[in-house]
Amino acid sequence: MKPVIICGGIGSKMWPESRVKTPKHFLPIFSGKSMFEINWSSLRKQYKADEIFLQTNACQAEIAKKLVPEIVEENIFIEPEMRNQGPATGFAAAMLKMRGLGDEPFMLIQADLLHMDEDLFLKSIVIAGEMATKEKVYITGSMVPTQIVEGVDYLIKGELLREENGIELYRVADYVDRTEKEKIKTMLGSKDLLLHWNHTTMTPNNLLEMYEKYRPDWSEPLQKIIEGGDVATNYALMPKGPIEEVTAKVHRDGGSVVMVFPFEIWDFGTWGSIENYEKQQNTQTEGNQKIEIESQNNYVRSKKMVALIGVEDLVVVDTPDALLICKKDKAGKVGQVVDALKAGNKTELL
Question: What is the total count of domains within the chain?
Fold first, then answer.
């Protein structure tokens, strides 16, 4: 089994701290450690440095190497440009195949997720690898949802295939797109509905065959790369798109397995998720100081003393060159600030 840490996005909803040169997964938010460093350290308990791969862009590869000097240079896959998760996942498979690992399972580890039981997470990687070796199926991860989560898809579990240490593997009976809100709402709380958490696991050869069947316009450029064609030229030929454009069809065709994690996973997409994590873990960002007068439920990140009077439910994030103030229920729109900065050519703030 080969773990592949994948990162490349910026995390624009966590501006102004998350920038092109300091994306969210590299920010030292957790007791001075970044999400990337925490994930790397977890994997190192089970794998040697030369058994772990990293897929990212050229800029972020340099950041990663500074944070974790033991990363093996030859194990870094550089995406020439951002083309979304569909092409990126296929690229990981192609790069592994080129290194003679076409029949060895790999798992994609997202750098901006934290797995709250390290031992069980490492065990789940082994179990997924065993399943991917045994069967020609697409394996993905999941959790039982306790509430509706926007922006993710859902799966319906079918036959139980294996259970070990609370980790369960099921055939996928159906796929529920995130847009099917009424169906999700109706099924929430049932024993069959699962929250789709990716963690793509397959052998590279099997994944590439899956692409050939469902997205030949992704498959053909990848095959040219494998055959020695120019990486940048061929990668650019793949239309942008999410991996769900393939996996949704695989799920509905009965060609997938879902692994249910018996532990909590944190996905940090907005400042609200950071606040919720800090509340649950009873931690606070070092150096944050605030005084609230006739104010409540405000989240502040600043090295300065911040005084709030007569306000509530605000997010305040202060950096040396920018200040974010927004209502908590609007935190998902912070990415629009980045769009406005791009439109105004304010590159120094991106």
Answer: 2
